């Protein structure tokens, strides 16, 4: 199996394009013309049955595949293949009525009810048994169907709920801890620091799942292990399904759609899959001005876990449930959003959904067709994209996204450790998004990369306040710096060990020697406007927020920026140490937008970084996908008006099938994909 890496292409040999399809929501007359209309729009794939357990098994042990068999066949005859789904996100009422103990219990002790989705516990014996059974029956039924090419496990695991405190979870948590600590309760007590507040355990059977405010603050080490347990549960639950599917038909690909809380997409969960799926809904950001940068980060973050991905659900229209209703993409914007996903790593893409449902909690999650089935501009746009993907789709397969400026991300322990003691500070993911946003603003080839991943080709690597830091990451980082890379380390990095306990070493802990400094003092900035602190970057003074650290540089380490106010005045706030051909920079505050912008301006002469394609007009960005044979330059216009690119790459524009030489006009929200042969 290929290692998970941001550079890893999928193993797909076709670019799948289409939508999720729900034949169970419509009568035969409404469905009649769907296959032909889909094919006319360029569809070659649909996804089905993720919420249809009650249709497939209306009574225990009684199965009815007629509707899906007929639909798969009718679509297949039009050249449209099917990705089938295990329907375990919505167990039927007959099952939860028979086994009410499978319902989740929330942190307040309340049992969830039937009537939505993800209402059952993945550790419950009966749920797991029925999950394996429905997966095996479906797999056996479709194992020789030529029109079923792959599977999606469940649906958006941990989307709405991740925690559960039922009796099944209590026992499973104890079993998980027993294995993790090799049956030695003393090891657990030492790891959790249970001597604090008289928490010492004499037996694993004494341990309960931690709940907030029951009665006061939980043990952060115990809480982190509980979050790890949630990720382990998700991986084990899915693994049973994957094994059944692969045994039934080894030629199927298997994927899952994320990205959600407390699931380790850089671990076993994704290692079990052929590739990861990411559901892209950019309109959850209601601000159209910041949406381009936030969506770019979301896509790069998805790719950072394991490499190129599929988009099983790409937003096509507005979406709404009780508390919100999204913007409707303007003309051309739906196509542009799809190309953003492809540019940043999608090797297949399905629009959510084919037809808007008229009932249920998602009756205003709008699809390609409206409720009345009349094709309008979204259908026309999807059809245009379908025609273009006949050329673009095959070209992107086997390519990776170029990354020259990267931010550390995709480490679940880091995200979850922050949740245990947040102190009102931004999370590592929030700061990573701000750092990535500055990269996006400058047009750099950017990405999210794990510290153990392949760092070749990267010139700038930023670690944003990772409190847990592992010694096994150090050799890779040292090679990166000594080879000429610039490493930027944010405040508080390496302050805790793997158990979420504060290290005894002088800060910055494991990174002290590499960074060439000690942290003499640190503090929270609770009133940054009343007691302002400023970092002086020479020509620019920056007002910091959230956190400060007073640094003492070692001999040979330079001061890049000094504190210029209050009791910190004159002391080092940002340092720089030369190491081999590269540089280690330590920043003694949180990387807000002003700090990162000022820092990058000072570092610019050392970075050898320029835009992915220089000379682009305002509001136009370039993303490069490449391999040894070809380079694809995506030019994306985020403006709501046409723009002229004066000096576009020379090559074949796969969207128009025309040669580009020099000047290129992009319409409002327009995209060109220019292929340059190596």
Describe this structure in words.
By secondary structure, the protein is an alpha/beta fold. Helix 6 (125-142) packs parallel to helix 9 (220-248) and helix 9 packs antiparallel against helix 14 (412-420). The model has no long low-confidence stretch (mean pLDDT 97).
List keywords for this structure.
Immunoglobulin-like; alpha/beta; 30% helix; 678 residues; 18 helices; TIM Barrel; nine-stranded mixed beta sheet; 3 domains; single chain; nine-stranded parallel beta sheet; Rossmann fold; globular
Q: Using only CA atoms, what is the Rg?
A: 26 Å
- Percent helix, as a range, is 25-40%
The SS-based structural class is alpha/beta
Strand content: 15-25%
Overall mean pLDDT score? 97
CATH topology of the largest domain: TIM Barrel
Strand order across the largest sheet: 5-4-3-2-1-11-8-7-6
Provide the CATH architecture of the largest domain: Alpha-Beta Barrel
Low-confidence stretches: none
Topology:
Elements lengths: L16 E4 L7 H4 L2 H7 L4 E4 L4 H4 L9 H11 L4 E5 L7 H6 L26 H18 L5 E5 L14 H14 L4 H8 L27 H29 L4 E3 L1 E2 L9 H4 L4 E3 L12 H16 L2 E7 L4 E2 L2 E2 L7 H11 L2 E7 L24 H20 L3 E2 L3 E4 L3 H9 L7 H15 L3 E4 L10 E4 L10 H9 L3 E5 L21 H4 L1 E9 L8 E3 L4 E3 L2 E8 L4 E6 L8 E8 L2 E6 L5 H15 L12 E7 L3 E8 L5 E11 L4 E9 L4 E7 L1
Parallel strand pairs: 1-2, 1-11, 2-3, 3-4, 4-5, 6-7, 7-8, 8-11, 13-14, 13-15, 15-16, 16-23
Antiparallel strand pairs: 9-10, 12-24, 17-20, 18-19, 18-21, 21-22, 22-23, 24-25, 25-28, 26-27, 26-28
């Amino acid at each position: 199996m290929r290692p998970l890496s941001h550079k890893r292409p999928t193993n797909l040999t076709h670019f799948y394009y289409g939508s999720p399809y729900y034949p169970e929501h419509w009568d035969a007359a409404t469905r009649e013309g769907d296959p032909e209309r889909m094919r006319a729009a360029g569809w070659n794939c649909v996804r089905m049955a993720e919420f249809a357990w009650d249709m497939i098994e209306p009574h225990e042990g009684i199965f009815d595949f007629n509707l899906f068999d007929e639909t798969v066949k009718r679509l297949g005859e039009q050249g449209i293949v099917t990705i089938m789904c295990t329907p375990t996100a919505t167990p039927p009422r007959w099952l939860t009525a028979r086994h009410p103990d499978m319902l989740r219990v929330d942190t307040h002790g309340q049992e969830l009810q039937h009537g939505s989705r993800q209402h059952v516990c993945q550790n419950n014996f009966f749920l797991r048994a029925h999950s394996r059974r429905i997966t095996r029956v479906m797999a056996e039924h479709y194992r020789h169907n030529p029109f079923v090419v792959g599977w999606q496990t469940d649906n958006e695991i941990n989307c709405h709920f991740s925690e559960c405190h039922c009796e099944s979870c209590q026992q499973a948590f104890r079993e998980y801890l027993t294995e993790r600590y090799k049956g030695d309760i003393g090891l657990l007590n030492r790891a959790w620091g249970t001597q604090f507040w008289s928490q010492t355990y004499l037996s694993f059977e004494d341990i309960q799942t931690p709940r907030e405010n029951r009665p006061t603050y939980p043990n952060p080490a115990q809480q982190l292990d509980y979050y790890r347990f949630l990720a382990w549960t998700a991986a084990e639950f899915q693994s049973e399904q994957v094994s059944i599917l692969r045994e039934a038909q080894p030629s199927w690909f298997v994927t899952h759609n994320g990205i959600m809380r407390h699931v380790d997409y850089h671990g076993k969960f994704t290692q079990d899959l052929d590739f990861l799926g990411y559901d892209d809904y950019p309109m959850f950001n209601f601000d159209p001005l910041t949406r381009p940068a936030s969506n770019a980060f979301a896509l790069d973050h998805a790719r950072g876990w394991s490499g190129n991905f599929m988009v099983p659900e790409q937003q096509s229209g507005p979406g709404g449930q009780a508390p919100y209703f999204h913007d409707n993409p303007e003309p051309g914007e739906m196509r542009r959003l799809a190309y953003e996903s492809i540019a940043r790593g999608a090797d297949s893409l399905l629009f959510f959904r084919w037809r808007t449902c008229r009932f249920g909690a998602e009756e205003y999650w709008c699809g390609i067709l409206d409720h009345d089935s009349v094709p309008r501009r979204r259908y026309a746009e999807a059809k245009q994209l379908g025609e273009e993907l006949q050329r673009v789709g095959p070209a992107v397969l086997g390519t990776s996204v170029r990354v020259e400026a990267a931010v550390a991300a995709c480490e679940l322990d880091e995200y979850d450790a922050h949740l245990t003691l947040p102190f009102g500070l931004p999370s590592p993911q929030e700061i990573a998004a701000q750092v990535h946003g500055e990269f996006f603003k400058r047009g750099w080839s950017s990405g999210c990369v794990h510290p153990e991943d392949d760092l070749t080709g990267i010139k700038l690597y930023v670690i944003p306040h990772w409190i847990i830091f592992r010694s096994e990451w150090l050799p890779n980082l040292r090679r990166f710096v000594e080879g000429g890379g610039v490493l930027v380390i944010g405040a508080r990095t390496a302050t805790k060990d793997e158990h979420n306990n504060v290290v005894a070493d002088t800060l910055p802990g494991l990174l002290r020697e590499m960074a060439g400094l000690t942290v003499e003092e640190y503090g929270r900035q609770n009133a940054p406007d009343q007691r302002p602190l400023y970092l002086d970057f020479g020509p620019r003074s920056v007002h910091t927020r959230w956190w400060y650290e007073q640094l003492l540089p070692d001999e040979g380490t330079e001061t890049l920026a000094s504190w210029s106010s209050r009791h910190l005045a004159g002391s080092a706030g940002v340092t720089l140490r030369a190491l081999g051909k590269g540089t280690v920079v330590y920043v003694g505050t949180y990387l807000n937008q002003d700090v990162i912008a000022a820092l990058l301006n000072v570092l610019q002469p050392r970075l050898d970084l320029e835009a992915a394609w220089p000379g682009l007009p305002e509001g136009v960005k370039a993303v490069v996908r490449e391999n040894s044979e070809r380079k694809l330059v995506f030019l994306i216009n985020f403006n709501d008006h046409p723009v002229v690119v004066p000096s576009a790459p020379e090559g074949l524009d796969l969207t128009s099938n025309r040669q580009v030489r020099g000047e290129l006009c992009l319409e409002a929200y327009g995209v060109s994909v220019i292929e340059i042969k190596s």
